[in-house]
Amino acid sequence: MSSNGSLLGFLIASMAAAACLSFAPPAATAQVPGKTSAAELARKSQAALQQLYGKVPAAKELGKRATAVLVFPGVTKAGLGIGGQYGEGALLKAGKPVAYYNTAGASYGLQAGAQTYGYAMFFMNEAAVRQLDKAEGFEVGVGPSVVVMDEGKAKTATTTTMKDDIYAFIFGQKGLMAGLGIQGNKVTKIQPK
Hints:
Blueprint: H1 3-22, H2 38-55, H3 57-65, E1 68-93, E2 96-123, H4 126-130, E3 138-139, E4 146-149, H5 151-156, E5 166-176, E6 186-190
Parallel strand pairs: 4-5
Antiparallel strand pairs: 1-2, 2-5, 2-6, 3-6
């Protein structure tokens, strides 16, 4: 391999490592300097949930039965071989914010690009909500079952067929990146400014 090829490989690896480090989650319940305020997170989360309800009737029906809804209105995902994603949101009970969380994850494999999206997790019982505050954080796909509702599932689902602990809806995708998912994301409680 030429020295130019080695240099290019080193630069790509360095950029990917920097991207991953920028998405590292802050410590649980830590103040996150320079991040969104509690009031702004609450406003954005409530607005995103209302937009989801307007576009997906199954989400609105599910929201009526949910104990709580955790909404991440804006998650940014970027990667080049190694990727990361990060976003902040609010846990809503009866439409009011009761706590704030971040979501973060890393991924490996054939990927390139960047995109933003939002997601909402509908917690159908109090036991599922309690999983959020585990000392090491809540990892999507570990613990209570999380069913990701795509457009097809959402159209055929009814409140009588929905019996799982947590349902997740991904919405508002913008950008160019394949392979969007929330499996393996870590959700950690934060104390916004």
